[in-house]
Specification:
- The chain is α+β, with helices and mostly antiparallel strands.
- It contains 26 helices and 17 strands.
- Helix 2 crosses helix 3 and helix 17 runs parallel beside helix 18.
- The longest helix is centred in the middle third of the chain and has 18 residues.
């Protein structure tokens, strides 16, 4: 787990090593254990290292691979962020094919795998990764992102070059240095942000000049092609239609298969040269991870839970449930209590850790949790992804009631309306809608570039793609490929890496996700949602955790704004920078500030926090 940055030039000039170094400095928290640089001609690379596998200098990056007896022309160089869980098996396979290793790192396995399989190496990797490989002899640059988008890779085209980094603020810093980056707001991305609980689907970001490589994508730049001349390949996309080979499976058959796949996923994520702990919320998902690890023979497992002060009549912790699991399995449990003044103090760091603004109150909870956890341990497993993969959210049962279409399949328009009604924070018009909130110029840009409702259009197109048998299947595919990547997954990466902590997510093991996509929707929707996981859980963990009401990391102070948090939001939205930016109508901002807790979104988020966070994020990262 690390941070990477680099530049590839297409205009015959040498890469700007100072710009790459500038990006690397911003990424320093992601890799506190080492740093490295490599530059030759049109390519420059930098890396910040969090040492988890092969703690020696042999695992340092950028890593250069030169065959025995080869010359500099034969080299391949790589920078890599993530972890390859099957690297020991791949190492054995590649050794049998004649490759020789000088380290015990997973980075070198990627390099040797690239020599053996070329860009198809991604098909052999089990793990989370963003990787950039360069062949100096041919000039080729290959970029790849893992199947579920767990590891980020942002890109910016500028003056005959493309720059890339593990975070968006790193690209902003380099662009601020030389004025090369367009930091104006992308109006379609803003529509997504304001509609879809801050989700901005790849390749867009809120800034016009920055894009992100989509998950499960390999991008190849060839010499002389220019920044627009790349080719992309999507290398993984599971089917959400039933497999005829499994037509005779009973509910028990599906439960057994999913349980075994989850056990494998948890086991895979133990690979490390340092101890591995668990973030334990006390919910079904993280509790299952603890239970399965215990059955794998893990003893004295370090577990961590966080809680906050109550506010507005809402409780702020779920310690009663995490205590049950900790006591049942005898874990080395750490309870972290955060009072309201500490939460206000921590907001600045949490916003600074965000590669893109994320309105979920879980971000601040995770940031504070990761800060404390990183003082004790360097690798944890976490339960993110189970709701999107196994239908744990409240909008999936209504999707199950979407009518069939006349020609087969389901009514896509009805499915889109059902999804938007449950999830979207606001529509394009009406009370509290886009025309009420955003400035005239911004609204004109939204209409010109995206049409009357680009967020709804995106959802409709995604739901209507072939390969999903039912509306529930289509919604699960949408959430797994898009919402999950740009909300929960991004939240975990940003907050954990801001403190030099590696977080692993077994529910996003791609073999498990592929199997889960095949599970009949009724088994997922059973028992109030995540029925198949609850059935598995009843074999392993205490029932009071399974049958409890669904919870989240509760941070009441970000739903019910008052005191110091409200002051921060008011100051940001009333600032000269906000007035110059003109994203929001002053009348709308004044109305929200006058009654800060009157409007909650369908997901119980605070609409004032949504607009205030965006302005706080832009100011924090120096976006003019």
């Amino acid at each position: 787990m690390c941070g990477l940055s680099g530049e590839l030039r297409f205009d015959g000039a040498s890469a700007d090593a100072d710009a790459v170094r500038c990006m690397s400095e911003v990424l320093a928290p992601r890799g506190p254990d080492g740093e490295g640089e490599w530059a030759r001609g049109p390519v420059a690379l930098a890396h910040r290292r969090l040492a988890i596998i092969d703690l020696s200098e042999a695992g340092a990056q950028p890593m250069v691979d030169r065959p025995e007896g080869g010359s500099a022309d034969d080299e391949v160089v790589a920078v890599f962020n993530g972890c390859i869980y099957n690297y020991p098996q791949l190492r054995e396979e590649l050794t049998a094919k004649g490759h020789r290793f000088r380290s015990t790192s997973d980075t070198e396995v990627i390099l040797k795998g690239y020599r053996e399989w070329g860009e198809d190496v991604v098909d052999h990797l089990v793990g989370m990764f963003a990787v950039v490989l360069h062949e100096p002899r041919t000039g080729r640059v290959v970029m790849a992102r893992d199947r579920l988008g767990i590891k980020p890779l942002y890109l910016a085209e500028s003056r005959g070059a493309v720059r890339f980094a593990s975070s968006l603020p790193a690209l902003v810093a380099a662009g601020r240095r030389d004025g090369s980056l367009d930091t104006s707001i992308d109006p379609v991305a803003l529509h997504h942000y304001l509609s879809w609980h801050a989700v901005v689907p790849a390749p867009r970001t809120l800034l016009r000049g920055v894009r992100k490589l989509p998950p499960a994508t390999v991008r190849v730049y060839e010499p002389g092609c220019g920044p627009d001349g790349y080719r992309d390949r999507v290398y993984w996309q599971p089917s959400y239609e039933r497999d005829p080979a499994k037509a005779g499976w009973t509910a028990r058959d599906w439960e057994d298969a999913v349980e075994e796949a989850l056990r494998t996923a948890v086991r895979r994520r133990l690979v490390a040269d340092v101890p591995v702990g668990v973030l334990l919320s006390g919910g079904l998902d993280s509790s299952l991870i603890v239970g399965l690890l215990a059955e794998e023979g893990q003893t004295g497992l370090a577990t961590f839970s966080i809680g906050f002060d109550a506010a507005g009549g809402r409780e702020g912790d779920e310690f009663q449930y995490s205590d049950v699991i900790a006591a049942h399995y005898g874990t080395d449990h750490h309870k972290i209590a955060v009072d309201s003044p500490s939460l206000v103090d921590a907001l600045g760091h949490a916003v600074g850790a965000m590669s893109e603004p994320m309105v979920s109150h879980d971000v601040v909870a995770f940031d504070l949790l990761c800060q404390r956890v990183a003082q004790e341990i360097r690798v944890v497993q976490s339960g993110q992804g189970a709701d999107e993969v196994f239908a744990g959210y409240h909008w999936y049962p209504p999707m199950g009631r979407v009518p069939s279409a006349a020609g087969g399949g389901f009514d896509v328009e009805a499915a889109t309306s059902t999804y938007a009604r449950a999830f979207f924070d606001r529509g394009p018009d009406g009370p509290g809608g886009m025309s009420w909130l955003v400035g005239d110029g911004v609204l004109e840009g939204m209409l010109a570039e995206g049409g009357p409702d680009p967020s709804r259009a995106f959802v409709a197109a995604h739901l209507g793609r072939p390969g999903a048998a039912t509306a529930v299947d289509a919604a699960l595919r949408l959430d797994t490929e898009v919402m999950l990547v740009d909300d929960p997954v991004k939240r975990v990466d940003n907050t954990s890496m801001a403190w030099g902590l590696e977080a692993r997510v077994p529910f996003l093991d791609h073999d498990l996700v592929t199997l889960a996509a095949q599970v009949p929707p009724e088994l997922k929707l059973a028992d109030g949602g995540k029925g198949i996981l609850k059935a598995i859980g009843r074999r392993t963990i205490p029932s009071e955790v399974i049958d409890r009401p669904k919870g989240y990391f509760p941070v009441p102070a970000l739903t019910h704004l008052e005191g110091g948090v409200l002051d921060l939001v008011r100051d940001a939205l009333s600032s000269d920078a906000a007035r110059r930016r003109g994203l929001f109508r002053p009348s709308a901002v004044a109305e929200l500030l006058a009654d800060p807790n009157s409007e909650l979104t369908p997901l119980k988020g605070n609409r004032l926090w949504q607009v205030g966070l965006l302005e706080l994020w832009l100011q924090t990262h120096g976006v003019a």
